[in-house]
């Protein structure tokens, strides 16, 4: 049994005629100790998928219409609010994109970490434990940092504090929602190193959300590529990077700037992500797809396993190999 | 060998906490500090009213009705109180009796009182110790009671009503506003319509009709509690509305999502993460609305439904000044009005300064 098992998850924003499908038939799994990357352009449903693991999307407007999110074998979507509070932090912890905004500006960081401890390990809510956690995430002189306010720290430090808070409850799964997007490149590398190191030491699984394919090769065991609320390709990270199958994945990889490229212009995917509620009837990528054919505009492809462990959502999946 | 470093070593300053910054900015505002200073004096005087006042608030001497203000004079190295005598042909017309004085002593025995309402005592800061030579700094009222002493005792009621009222209405307003804003939907609508209902009724009518829901003939302590409850009941609604608005924007902040993701209960999120972020506003608003409670007590007592005689409050002392005849001849009866004026002004000065200091965009 996998640690996390998302099966045919469907979520709307709103109800009835005005409902907009934000997550459409998303399925993937994360095993204990595994790192899975969720990749895609902005607005493709990565974050709401991740927030659904703790049922954290505000309801309303969110409305789950189908599927299940099994965490440790129990369906999160049917849990009571008390059970939800136990798994939030207890099983799955989150870190977010803007570390500065994720910390409460009016509290010292020591107290914020302690609060996280109080919620899940009340016996351990001590200064000593907070210092241990701060040391764990590589903050120098943790004893004196306890009494700092968030605004007295740099972005990288703040993100380390956020990670310490997330780890305080000893989760089995850490969801990192673009943890390095707001940081500069050197700090980004440090934070990713830290995450990789912590994962090995603590043996937790990581769901890493990013739109940076460069991170994927470094971090991920497996990758799920999302487009317009659907997973279009799911594959082991190395194979996906070496040989992307879905036209969207190919296009994404082509738009990564290369150091030794001989191109004058950066390549970009033509057009825009279709707006939610305004998706094409058939394949959602076909208006921008370089290899679109007849039938793509009218028939919605299924996510099929075309090779062992390689899943692709395309009508012409067989031809893509 | 030691070599001097070419680069001067600058000691790194530890950044100041938000409260220290706030205090630094506040200290630079003279008017606000002055207001704060006046309030500190007023409140400490109220705390030690029994000791500073030469008489107990019930101490009356009908021989000295409408006795004019009397200030001790310096005679040699002693302060002495002159004696006034009522002229025989005219009532309430006092004249100084020449060469009849009594030295004013400090720490004299006088009326019994309870310091802080707990410790029985009878030492007063000053006095003559002789009832035939009264010291009426601000004159006497129609029953021959010392206006100054009564003003000090009255300040205990008038000044504490503001603080108690603020505490009740702001705590209520913050909790209700926080819940309303955080949960939204039907809860929000229901609470906000209720607030609007309360706010739409003219304040004074509401005060008087609420007063009538309490039985007449309450003791002073009961009336005191009643006034606080009435005034808080009216004013929590506007506080709740503002806090609700701030909560609406704060609940979209990422640290609220982070707290929810860590498994915090809604009430914990509201109490620990949302409301503390409204404190800088709340402190300012509280300071600026204390005068409302002081004036509210004045209105109720002025209308004769507040603090009852013989207890003293600034409001019921002013009731005596309703009579224009009295006012023309005995203007010192207006002294509590001056005290109210000074207090309200001091609160407003302090509140303005707090607002500027809390605004990080100003210098």
Tell me what you see in this structure.
The complex is a heterodimer of chains A (321) and B (363). Chain A has helices at residues 46-52, 81-90, 99-102, 109-120, 127-136, 142-145, 155-168, 185-202, 213-219, 237-242, 247-254, 317-320, and strands spanning 4-13, 20-30, 35-39, 62-71, 74-75, 92-95, 173-177, 205-210, 222-227, 230-236, 303-307, 310-313. Chain A is an alpha/beta fold and 321 residues long. Helices cover 32% and strands 23% of the residues of chain A. The longest helix of chain A has 18 residues, at 185-202. In chain B, a hairpin with a 7-residue loop joins strand 2 and strand 3 (94-103). Chain B is mainly alpha-helical and 363 residues long. In chain B, helix 4 (147-183) crosses helix 9 (266-274) and helix 5 crosses helix 7. The mean pLDDT of chain B is 82. Chain B is elongated and about 85 Å long. Chain B has helices spanning 18-27, 30-47, 49-52, 147-183, 185-200, 203-213, 220-250, 254-261, 266-274, 279-302, 314-319, 324-329, 335-358, and strands at residues 73-75, 78-86, 94-103, 105-115, 119-127. A 3-stranded antiparallel β-sheet of chain B has the order 1-2-3, with no helix packed on it. A two-stranded antiparallel sheet of chain B has the order 4-5.
Strand tally of chain B: 5
- Biggest sheet details of chain A: 8 strands, mixed
Strand content of chain A: 15-25%
SSE run of chain B: HHHEEEEEHHHHHHHHHH
Mean pLDDT of chain B: 82
Number of E-type strands of chain A: 12
Helix-strand makeup class of chain B: mainly alpha
Tell me the greatest interface.
A-B, 31 and 21 residues
**Tally of helical segments of chain B:** 13
User: Order of strands across the widest beta sheet of chain A?
Assistant: 6-7-8-3-9-10-12-11
| Spatial sequence of strands, sheet with the most strands of chain B | 1-2-3
């Amino acid at each position: 049994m996998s640690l996390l098992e998302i099966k045919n998850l469907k979520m709307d924003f709103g109800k009835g005629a005005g409902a907009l499908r934000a997550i459409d038939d998303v399925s993937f799994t994360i095993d204990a100790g595994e790192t899975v990357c969720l990749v895609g352009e902005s607005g493709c449903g990565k974050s709401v998928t991740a927030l659904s693991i703790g049922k954290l999307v505000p309801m309303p407007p969110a409305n789950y219409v189908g599927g299940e999110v099994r965490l440790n074998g129990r369906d999160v979507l049917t849990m009571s609010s008390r059970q939800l509070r136990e798994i939030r932090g207890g099983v799955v912890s989150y870190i977010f994109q803007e570390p500065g905004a994720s910390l409460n500006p009016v509290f010292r960081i020591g107290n914020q970490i302690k609060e996280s401890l109080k919620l899940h390990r009340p016996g351990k809510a001590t200064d000593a434990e907070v210092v241990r956690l701060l040391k764990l995430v590589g903050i120098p002189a943790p004893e004196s940092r306890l009494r700092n306010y968030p605004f007295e720290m740099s972005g990288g430090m703040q993100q380390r504090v956020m990670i310490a808070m997330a780890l305080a409850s000893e989760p089995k799964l850490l969801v990192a929602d673009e943890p390095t997007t707001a940081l500069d490149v050197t700090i980004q590398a440090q934070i990713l190193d830290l995450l990789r190191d912590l994962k090995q030491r603590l043996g937790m699984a990581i769901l890493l959300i990013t739109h940076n394919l460069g991170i994927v090769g470094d971090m991920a065991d497996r990758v799920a590529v999302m487009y317009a609320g659907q997973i279009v390709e799911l594959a082991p990270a190395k194979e996906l990077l070496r040989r992307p199958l879905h036209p969207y994945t190919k296009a994404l990889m082509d738009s990564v700037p290369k150091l030794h490229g001989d191109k004058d212009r950066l390549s970009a995917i033509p057009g825009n992500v279709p707006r939610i509620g305004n998706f094409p009837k058939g394949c959602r990528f076909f208006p921008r797809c370089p290899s679109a054919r007849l039938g793509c505009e009218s028939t919605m492809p299924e996510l099929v396993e075309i090779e062992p462990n390689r899943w692709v959502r395309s009508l012409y999946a067989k031809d893509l190999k | 060998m030691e070599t001097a470093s070419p680069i001067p070593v600058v000691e790194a300053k530890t950044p100041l906490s938000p409260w220290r910054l706030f205090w630094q900015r506040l200290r630079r505002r003279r008017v606000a500090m002055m207001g704060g200073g006046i309030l500190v004096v007023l409140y400490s005087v109220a705390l030690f009213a029994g000791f500073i006042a030469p008489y107990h608030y019930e101490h009356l001497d009908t021989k000295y009705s409408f006795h004019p203000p009397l200030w001790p004079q310096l005679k040699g190295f002693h302060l002495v109180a002159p004696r006034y005598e009522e002229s025989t042909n005219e009532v309430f017309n006092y004249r100084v009796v020449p060469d009849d004085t009594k030295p004013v002593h400090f720490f004299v025995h006088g009326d019994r009182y309870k310091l802080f309402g707990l410790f029985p005592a009878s030492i007063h800061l000053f006095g003559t110790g002789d009832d035939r030579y009264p010291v009426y700094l601000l004159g006497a009222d129609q029953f021959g009671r010392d206006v100054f002493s009564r003003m000090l005792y009255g300040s205990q009621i008038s000044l504490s009503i503001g603080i108690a009222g603020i505490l009740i209405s702001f705590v209520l307003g913050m909790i209700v506003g926080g819940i309303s804003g955080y949960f939204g939907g039907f809860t929000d609508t229901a609470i906000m319509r209720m607030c609007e209902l309360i706010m739409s009724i003219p304040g004074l009518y509401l005060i008087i009709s609420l007063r009538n829901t309490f039985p007449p003939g309450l003791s002073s302590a009961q009336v005191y509690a009643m006034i606080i409850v009435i005034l808080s009941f009216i004013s929590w609604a506007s506080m709740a509305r503002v806090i609700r608005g701030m909560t609406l924007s704060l609940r979209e902040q990422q640290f609220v999502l982070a707290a929810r993701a860590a498994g915090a209960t809604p009430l914990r999120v509201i109490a620990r993460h949302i409301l503390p972020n409204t404190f800088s506003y709340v402190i300012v608003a509280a300071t600026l609305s204390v005068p409302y409670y002081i004036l509210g007590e004045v209105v109720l007592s002025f209308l004769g439904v507040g603090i009852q005689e013989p207890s003293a409050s600034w409001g019921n002392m002013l009731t005596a000044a309703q009579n224009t005849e009295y006012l023309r001849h005995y203007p010192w009866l207006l002294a509590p009005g001056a005290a109210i004026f000074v207090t309200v002004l001091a609160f407003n000065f302090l509140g303005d300064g707090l607002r500027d200091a809390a605004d990080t965009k100003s210098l």
